[in-house]
Amino acid sequence: MSIRSIRFGNMFMGEEGDKHPYLIDRDPYKIIDNLYYVGNMWCASHLIDTGDGLILLDVPAASGYPGLLINIMKLGYTVDDIKYIVISHAHTDHYGCVQALVSRCHAKTFMGRVDTEDMLANPERTARLDAGLGPYNEPFVPDVQLEDGDIVELGNIKMRCVLTPGHTVGVMSHFWDMEHEGKTYHVGIYGGSGYGSLSTEGLKKFGLPLTMQKVFVESIEKVWDEPVDVMLGNHPFHSDEFQKSLRAKKGEKDPFIDPTEWHRYLTELREGFEEFLNYTPEQGAELFGKTHFDEYYADFYAMEKELGM
Prior knowledge:
Layout: H1 3-6, H2 15-19, E1 29-32, E2 35-37, E3 46-49, E4 54-57, H3 65-74, E5 82-86, H4 92-95, H5 98-105, E6 108-112, H6 113-121, H7 123-130, E7 144-146, E8 151-154, E9 157-163, E10 172-180, E11 183-189, H8 200-205, H9 212-222, E12 230-232, H10 241-249, H11 261-276, H12 281-288, H13 293-296, H14 298-306
Parallel strand pairs: 4-5, 5-6, 6-7, 11-12
Antiparallel strand pairs: 1-2, 2-3, 3-4, 8-9, 9-10, 10-11
C-alpha cells in the first residue's frame, strides 16, 4: 500500500512497541524558531516557548510520559516551565499524560467544549475507543473549555482554535504566527485526521450519527483557505515530521517550511476518506487489520542508519 494510504490506516505501534514503548522515543528537535517536537514516533506533542512560559499542544498516551519528560529536559526546560496544555481532541493518545503532568506542574489545561461534554456524557464509548492504548490513561476535565474561534494567548503566541469535527465530535485545529529569521510564518495543525471509525458500521458501533461522514469533509473545507506555511502533524506520520528532522540533520535548510503542504495534505485526506467509504471488506482489512507502523517508517530507519544514529 502507498504511504498516502497507510498514514491514515492502522498506525498503532504493534506488539513490541506496546510492550516496550521507549523503543519509539527519539530526541526532540527544532521545527522553527521556538517551536519544537517533544513527542514520540506515534503520539505528537509540540512545545512552544512563548517567552512567558511553555505551551504544550497535545501530549502522548500515558506510556509516553517518561519520554516526554526526557525530551522537555533535553531542550533545557523543566515541567515547571509548562504553563498551558492545549488538547486537540478527546482521544487518550492526545491527552493521556495530562493528569500526570498537571500533578507536577499545575499548568492550565484547554480542550474544546464539544469534546469535553461528549467525553463526560459517554464514558463507556470513550473507554471503548481508547481500549488497547495502555494503562494509566485517564480522562480529564479541562480548566478552559474552548469554543470555535477562541484565542489561547501566552507571551508572544496567539493561537486560534477552530472547531473541525469529524474524527471526534469536537476536534479543534490550531493556527498561529511565529517569527523565524526575520520573517513571519503561519503555523497550522489539523486536529484529527483518522477516519477508520467513520465507516457506517463504525459509527453505528459507537452510537454516532451517519452525518459525521459529511461533517468530516465539511471540516476540511472549513480550513482549506488557511495560509499555512508550516504544517504540523496531529500524529508525526501525518506530515512526515521525523523524516524532515533528519533532512535538517543532513543540512537541508528549513525542511518544515512548505506553503504547498497544507493543500496537498488536505487533498490527500479528503480523497483517501472518500475512497475509504467505498472500500470492500477486504480493502478495509488490509488498511486497518494490521499495523503499518514499521512499513511507514522504513525510510526513516534507513536515514537513521545512514546518519549513524
